[in-house]
């Protein structure tokens, strides 16, 4: 009986030792793969960055490969499409309406007060802004959120071409940018040959007629007029000066120039101006010297060259009835 109890006790101790040994073996076995897995895990991916200088002089760190872009200006959206980067446009403003495909892109609100939440949700690699249209506060707010913002600032037709080339380099579309800019420059050179030696027409570019707003001499629009064989009668460094109609009557421009968004057809615009007090005193109104050009003239984008050519044909039709001058 005593031996039986001893055997029973000895068996129980042996069983406990076996279970304890199994416990340590199992735990050790599970610890080994856990340690190896942790040691071999892939570190978080770090996106390669490169630093560029935008057209306002700011240093901006952007991904080496730009895949998602939010555009905060219609001119920038047009440029991206012209560069063949439509599939990379993640979002645009409510006013980005050209080309028609831009209307189908996700919207982030207006250019002045875009929705920061919507921009962040689109996870852009870079946001494109322009100094003339977007607010500095918007740029700074996006920077605080860790989003790269590249700003443009074209002040002339040549600046517009150079801005196009720089945007192409920013998004990795260098070849497309060079082809596009080369083509646009060739068209401008051809236009320059046709207009060589011709006296420029004195014009008033009307941004808005009530109140009367025109353009300053240091804007890309003033340079576009010069390229089209015209010169503005307004001499001011203000970008968008408000004018007095009496002063315009004194200046007597040869032509009044409108963008199509602010004018109907030439005939309708002429009839409307003649019905307004004071405007009928302008020789340009009496003689129907009114030019209405595409809204592309208002945007420093590749289509600006289209508008320049269109205006030149209206101001100097004789230059296009003959072979270009050498």
Description:
43% of the residues lie in helices and 14% in strands. With 326 residues, the protein is of the alpha/beta class. Among the domains are: 49-153, Nitrogenase molybdenum iron protein domain (Rossmann fold), CATH 3.40.50; 198-320, Nitrogenase molybdenum iron protein domain (Rossmann fold, 3-Layer(aba) Sandwich). The protein has a four-stranded parallel beta sheet, with helices on both faces. A four-stranded parallel beta sheet has the order 10-7-11-12, sandwiched between helices. A two-stranded antiparallel sheet has the order 1-2. The radius of gyration is 33 Å and the shape is globular. The model is unreliable at 1-44 (pLDDT under 50).
Share of helix, binned = 40-55%
The CATH class of the domain at 198-320: Alpha Beta
What shape does the CA trace take? globular
Mean pLDDT: 86
User: What count of helical segments does DSSP give?
Assistant: 11
Fold blueprint:
Elements: H1 2-40, E1 49-53, E2 59-63, E3 69-71, H2 74-82, E4 89-91, H3 116-121, E5 126-130, H4 136-144, E6 149-152, H5 157-170, H6 174-195, E7 201-206, E8 208-209, E9 212-213, H7 220-227, E10 230-232, H8 245-251, E11 255-259, H9 266-274, H10 283-286, E12 290-293, H11 304-315
Parallel strand pairs: 3-4, 3-5, 5-6, 7-10, 7-11, 11-12
Antiparallel strand pairs: 1-2, 8-9
Produce a short descriptive summary.
By secondary structure, this protein is α/β, with parallel strands linked by helices.
Kindly list the characteristics that best describe this protein.
43% helix; disordered N terminus; four-stranded parallel sheet; Rossmann fold; 326 residues
